[in-house]
Amino acid sequence: MDWMPTNRSLSSRLDLNRATHATEFVPRVLSSSASVSPNFLSYPPISGAPLHPITKKLEDADISSHVTPESTSPPLINSSPLINSSPILHDKLNTTPTLPAYHENVGGTTYFYQYPTENVPPPEAVAPTPSPSTSISSEYNVFTGKSEPSYFLSSDLRNDILNRNMLTLLQADPTQFPDLPAEVDSYHELFPVEAMPSAGGLHKPHMGYQASMYKATHIKTGIHYCLRRIHGFRLSNTKCMAFVELWKKLSHSNIVQLKEVFTTKAFGDNSMIFVYDYHPGCETLLSRHFSPDQSGYSDPFINDTSTPRPYSYQKNNLLRHTQNNKLPEPLIWNYIIQLTSALRVIHSSALACRSLDPTKIIINSRNRLRLSCLGVMDVVMHETNSTINHVTLIQHYQQEDLTSLGKLVLALACKSTVAVQRENMSTALDLVGRTYTPDLRNLIMYLLASQQRRSVTDLMPMIGARFYTQLDLLHQHADSLDDELSKEVQNGRLFRLMVKLSMINERPDFNMESTWSETGDRYMLKLFRDYVFHQVNEDGNPWLDMAHVVQCLNKLDVGTPEKISLISRDEQSVLVVSYAELKHCLEQSFGELANSSMLHHDLSGTTIVPE
Ligand SMILES: Nc1ncnc2c1ncn2[C@@H]1O[C@H](COP(=O)(O)OP(=O)(O)OP(=O)(O)O)[C@@H](O)[C@H]1O
């Protein structure tokens, strides 16, 4: 993916002449290495690497190659007198730049002085002055940040992450949910995941019990979980907890991980709580594909009894409806692969799902399915039928899982939950045969043949090469996420660099020294900050060039030998320094801060070390 911005030249847009009349300081690019593409991934030229011709020209000129600023610089009181007696390399007000010709080391800081005018070398030997004659032609464009490719996460992915973040951080309004307990065992900040039934009503019972779902935060870890509460449930027999332990150990990308199960009276009754991983932004398979709330959705198998029609009419109607509204077959196979993948690990762990139902399968925006109610049936049904040996019945339950899977696929293929009712089954299978490939119909037929012993592994040959398609799609998706992540890795690296810079720049005082951030190494970093962030164009308007910022910060991070001219705010002096020297200043100054700080955060781990 080529997401680098196009090359551009800053110097082509900076007007020195105008600046000489400006009342405010206008930081400028005097070394025009800006044509190097800013790139998070490939770094600016470092020693040995071929240089851009303009940069090379600058390298060839004998400019400040020995600058090694140290933190023991003599204190610089304020900008004007300071600049006049400090590393003056270039009288900014002169359109002809003067060169640094000799230098002197005072307390570890090298100061540069001008040669008398007669010794000034010809202008072409120095850093190119950004005048119209030396500016780079306008074939280079500034990266505006508006067009793709981008330095940042794609907006789809970003919005998805932000949305999930927002859902995760939702807090319940106590006036709206006065009955919510403040704490339930190790969890607090409960928030109902589904709309509470109105007027104190309850959700329809599931397995004979009312159930509610809440998002909650673990008190100690701050991790968010989903609590499934079974109302009015008293656990009299702990045998079923053996199942809970098995479920807790089961981890798979298509199941919602069970974390723990406990009883509580926090809700004012005896409730059983199943704690699961929280997957924000998911909906149930029922609401995704079978919800009457969706515009245009109607279950084709629900007859309009008010106007009885002949059977042939109804069948044709069904066929037409299914043809027009059918789910794409690859999507159905995608679901089959995910569900059978989950069932495979469940069954091979001597467990059974027992709740393969469109309300108990959650789905995210990228069609990832997860079985969401695992373990509940094992506990609840154990309590209801305590005389039955559930362990011996596992194989029977596994067969029931496969029948449920057959019904689910049939319902998806007909886009109807009523299609799986016994009286509709043969019509539904007929419709599937006419609408989809024979493979899909055969798979459903196999799963629904409950008189024979079936196994989830037998489904593999029926899925066949579709498995490879799915695998390929997943790998492609993983690759694209990897690309997006690599951008953020680079952003994180630059962010840490900016944190360091910001902690130094404009610091009001340090070690009782009120001018610390304005003197010595820190003064150069201050001018560098202006150079990076406060550029203006020839009209004096802000020059908001992201590519310039990225490029400068990358060069600072690497510490390239390339030199730049930093101009004081009063425009009286110019310092020519290399990025290597600036990097040294930054590390030295930040080191001083870090040494006297109580807290040491890891702001160093991201620096790229050039090969
Ligand atoms: N682990 C989870 N993380 C995030 N949301 C979940 C999780 N499990 C379920 N949900 C969401 O919680 C809501 C309620 O789930 P539930 O299983 O109770 O479905 P339901 O349709 O209300 O079923 P029932 O009719 O049996 O109550 C659904 O919107 C579902 O998407």
UniProtKB/TrEMBL annotation:
Pfam families attached to this UniProt entry: Pan3_CK
Coiled coil: 465-503
InterPro entries for this protein: Kinase-like_dom_sf, PAN3, Pan3_CK, Prot_kinase_dom
GO molecular function, one term: ATP binding
Residue intervals of the Protein kinase domain: 199-468
Any GO BP: mRNA processing
Location(s), subcellular: Cytoplasm, P-body
Annotated ATP binding sites: 228, 277-284, 359-360
GO CC, alphabetical: P-body; PAN complex
Key word Cytoplasm present: yes
Region described as Knob domain: 504-611
Keyword Coiled coil annotated: yes
UniProt keyword terms in alphabetical order: ATP-binding, Coiled coil, Cytoplasm, mRNA processing, Nucleotide-binding
Entry note about domains: The N-terminal zinc finger binds to poly(A) RNA.
Entry similarity comment: Belongs to the protein kinase superfamily. PAN3 family.
Assembly with partners or alone: Homodimer. Forms a heterotrimer with a catalytic subunit PAN2 to form the poly(A)-nuclease (PAN) deadenylation complex. Interacts (via PAM-2 motif) with poly(A)-binding protein (via PABC domain), conferring substrate specificity of the enzyme complex.
Protein function: Regulatory subunit of the poly(A)-nuclease (PAN) deadenylation complex, one of two cytoplasmic mRNA deadenylases involved in general and miRNA-mediated mRNA turnover. PAN specifically shortens poly(A) tails of RNA and the activity is stimulated by poly(A)-binding protein (PABP). PAN deadenylation is followed by rapid degradation of the shortened mRNA tails by the CCR4-NOT complex.
Protein name per UniProt: PAN2-PAN3 deadenylation complex subunit PAN3
Native species: Acanthoscelides obtectus
